[in-house]
Amino acid sequence: MNVQAAETTPERPADIAMTVVLTMRQMGVLGTPRNYEIYYEALNGSNPELSLELASLGLRPKQQELDRIGEKHFAHHHDHGVVDGARDTITRQLDAITSILVSERIYLEKYGRILGQAADGLNSRHMITQEIVQKIVDVMAVATRSTIDHGRQAVSSLDDTSAELESVKSKLEEYKRLAETDPLTQIWNRRAFDRQISRIFDTRQGVMFNALVLADIDCFKDINDRYGHPVGDKIIQLIGGILQSSCGPEMFVARTGGEEFALIIEGASVERTMAFADQLRAEIAETPFTNSQTRVSYEPITISMGVCMASDADGPEDLYAKADRALYRSKINGRNQVTLHRPTPERRSKDWMLYSRD
Fold first, then answer.
1. How far apart are CA 164 and CA 172, in angstroms?
2. C-alpha distances out from residue 351 to 11, 51, 199, Å
3. What confidence tens digit (pLDDT) does each residue in 249-283 have?
4. Going by CATH, does the domain composed of 182-358 fall within 3.30.70.270?
């Protein structure tokens, strides 16, 4: 099958996003995007196994228990063997480097003693004969050659060890890239998104100049039911490619699960953010999605979007929840549109006072 650049889940129940937030607060659960995802899936009933596992944790689940559920049901590439193997290699090679340097120090100290003895011999008040001088020269020549040879071996060993450490470093970097890459679309995944959205609130500048955009393919279940999951996967790939190419490398684009994507836009006003989001929406709506072999058209393919400025949220989980509620409003108002979360007047006043201080 070759689908060319051709929503979403069935309609959401009454504002489940707010239910998720309230439930997490009542149970004392840390409001991270990953925890939000766990409770969202559990409360909307789409993952019965996860729901049962979460219920078994009781009314006060521990974060370690939630992390285990998150790794099992959402995270990709949890191959701890890669990290453990790299750690063992690094430890072994560092021990080897230490051994090489210690050995080289011993050789240099020995050579230094020979130099000192030779100097003492030459400075002796006793008669220095040609024979004595020759013996000193011979001893120095042997010691010097031995020290040089040992130094060359040490350098060679250090080069080999450094090369292996560099190889381990490359493997770890590749592991990190894979661990944060969505295997279907090759853009950032939910794990990378969790990290990125948390960073927004590390600085006042991040809060003032970032926005979160959530995008969801409209009537996607109907697409899967009618054409099959391979077609659905291809459409997800194509839309992920459109988002990535339109946003460019300076913007953060992730597939956060299923048919949902997230964009973090930095340094843009509310007006520019909304205009850019609507431009993406229009581009996807105008893109033909057809099978190049059968000429079957899968149109119309559209997306709905929800936008929230970071300055209108209290933290990562609040930012995500508000953008998600804005996305939900786009859905119930007809789909194929962009909705902005609008804070209350009290919130705007509070934010202006908070972020205008020096």
1. 12
2. 33, 37, 19
3. 778 999 998 899 999 999 889 999 999 999 999 99
4. yes
Q: Are 237 and 227 in contact (CB under 8 A)?
A: no
How far is residue 326's CA from residue 299's CA, in Å, rounded to a whole number? 25
* The dihedral formed by the CA atoms of 190, 195, 201 and 203, expressed in degrees to the nearest 10: -150
Cβ atoms of residues 214 and 327 within 8 Å: yes
Q: Which of 6, 2, 1, 30 is nearest to 290 (CA)?
A: 6
Cα–Cα distance measured from residue 285 to residue 303, given in angstroms and rounded to the nearest whole number: 7
pLDDT tens by residue, 95-112 = 777 777 777 788 778 777
Tens digits of per-residue pLDDT, 289-330? Answer: 988 788 888 878 999 999 999 999 999 999 999 999 999 999
Helical H segments across the chain, by residue range: 16-26, 33-43, 48-55, 63-73, 80-122, 130-179, 190-200, 204-208, 220-227, 229-247, 270-286, 316-332, 345-355
> Which residue is listed with tokens 């839309």?
239
Q: Which residues pair with 338 in a beta bridge?
A: 305
Tokens of 140: 């120095």
What is the reported pTM? 0.57
